[in-house]
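Consortium newsletter contribution from the modelling node. Members have asked for a concrete example of what our holo predictions look like. Here is one, prepared for the inosinic acid complex that several groups have been discussing at recent meetings.
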Amino acid sequence: MEQEKIIFATGNQDKMKEIREIMSDIGDRIFSLKEAGIEADIEENGATFEENAIIKARAICRLTGQIVLADDSGLEVDYMNKAPGVYSARYLGEDTSYSIKNQTIIKNLENAKGDERSARFVCVIAAAFPDGRIITARGEIEGLIAHEEKGDNGFGYDPIFYVPDYNMTTAQMDSEQKNNISHRGKALRLMKEKLKYEGIDC
Ligand code: IMP
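And here is the predicted structure:
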């Protein structure tokens, strides 16, 4: 059973909290880039969530010689041909506020009715091993683009992501509720299972 350090290639402390909650058995062996003292600016120039997650995980793995996990996530709006997709953070410009991004999506969908408003959050986590092995895990959550922003929790596109089964947006859920059903929660739990097959106990 391997007991080595695992790096999660993110600078986002909210993500780290969620990752430690879900991978509780290895929580104390898992380090963010900052915690591991690594400074790296990796260009996410892949065309898919998988490509971007692998690019990040592989680059940090080569740099450190450690097992590295990395994720890439985003929102796919079917009525917008699955945009913003891998460009979710950069949509309308990295510095544009999410209220403008969200209002623009609502406006783009002003003629879309019912199921035409379908959308999903996608998260792909990649694990890169020093021996070159790569494994990936994908999680998705289906929803509809709301007609107006609702809720103050979460971040990004949460206020316009309506989940019919819960009759609320992901911004109206508390973090535990969201983690249970979210794309990131699903991808993390799947990765945890896949890591077990690779002999990593988590
Ligand atoms: P990244 O994976 O940190 O690059 O995030 C990609 C972008 O997708 C974020 O900046 C958000 O715009 C969006 N996104 C990903 N996951 C979520 C979520 O759970 N809620 C709201 N927006 C999200």
